[in-house]
Write a structure and sequence with these properties.
With about 250 residues, the protein is α/β, with parallel strands linked by helices. The protein has a single domain, classed as Aldolase class I (TIM Barrel, Alpha-Beta Barrel). About 40% of the residues lie in helices and about 15% in strands. It is built from eleven helices and eight strands. Strands 1-2-3-4-5-6-7-8 form an eight-stranded parallel β-barrel, surrounded by five helices. α7 crosses α9. The longest helix is centred in the C-terminal third of the chain and has 19 residues. The protein starts with a strand and ends with a helix.
């Protein structure tokens, strides 16, 4: 049975005091649910501050990216081992913004995924199609390619330690959300790809949905088969909305 998740991706937002206030509000109002893992992913500068403020709430700490290398002369990079030592448990990889703006594709994402797994952390690996690709009937081709170029080079035990996030590019930050039916269709395809490639045990891999998830539409999305939670963008910056999404289960 896949585990349920709600992860908040803050992206490049919030100054120090704003981040502190957000985490304090979350910590004071969060009620732990043993069936749902709640994660917040602040920018790098606020990781240790956020970890300290989360305390014993049960909310887990995630990072938004990491380097493809373990250590060395790579100015400006942050390794998975560094993140682990800061108390991080999850790392977002392959987000469409990283793919589009920074050119991150298969080989680099595979190395990043390996580094995260080696550090004992859990990758939240993002996949998704553009509107042009969807309209051209290439949705399944794009999704299977993105899965194959990374997961296809890993073992079943490694894949079982990955969380997938389907994020249609056309729904990220646009206010347009894939309908529950559209999201479920793709999640079902991903589920089928996993079981065909790795066997029935791969059905335990959690598949999250991301793309303009709100407090209003979360319940409808989470009610669908093979949608095991959400990777939340803008709504994760609003504590009340984020907690409503966490509680949508």
């Amino acid at each position: 049975m896949p585990r349920k998740y709600v992860a908040g991706n803050w992206k490049m937002n919030l100054l120090k005091e704003e981040a502190e206030q957000l985490v304090r509000t979350l910590s004071e109002n969060y009620t732990a649910n043993p069936d749902v893992e709640c994660i917040v992913c602040p920018p790098f500068p606020w990781l240790t501050q956020t970890k300290a403020l989360l305390g014993e709430t049960g909310i887990q700490l995630g990072a938004q990216n990491c380097a493809a290398t373990e250590k060395g002369a790579f100015t400006g990079e942050v390794s998975a081992q560094m993140l682990a030592s800061a108390g991080v448990r999850y790392v977002i990889l392959g987000h469409s913004e990283r793919r589009a703006l920074f050119g991150e594709q298969g080989a680099v994402l595979l190395e990043k995924t390996k580094r995260v797994l080696e550090a004992g952390l859990t990758p939240i690996f993002c996949i998704g199609e553009t509107l042009e690709e969807r309209n051209a009937g290439k949705l399944e081709q794009v999704i299977s390619h993105q899965l194959q170029e990374v997961l296809g080079h890993l073992s079943l035990p490694e894949v079982l330690n990955i969380v997938l996030a389907y994020e249609p590019v056309w729904a990220i930050g646009t206010g347009v959300t894939a309908s529950p039916e559209q999201a479920e269709e793709v999640h079902t395809f991903i589920h089928g790809w996993l079981t065909k490639t790795f066997g029935s045990e791969a059905s335990n891999v959690s598949i999250l949905y991301g793309g303009s998830v709100t407090a209003e539409n979360a319940s409808g999305l989470f009610a669908r088969n093979h949608i095991d939670g959400g990777l939340i963008g803008g709504a994760s910056l609003k504590p009340a909305d984020f907690l409503k999404i966490v509680n949508a289960w």
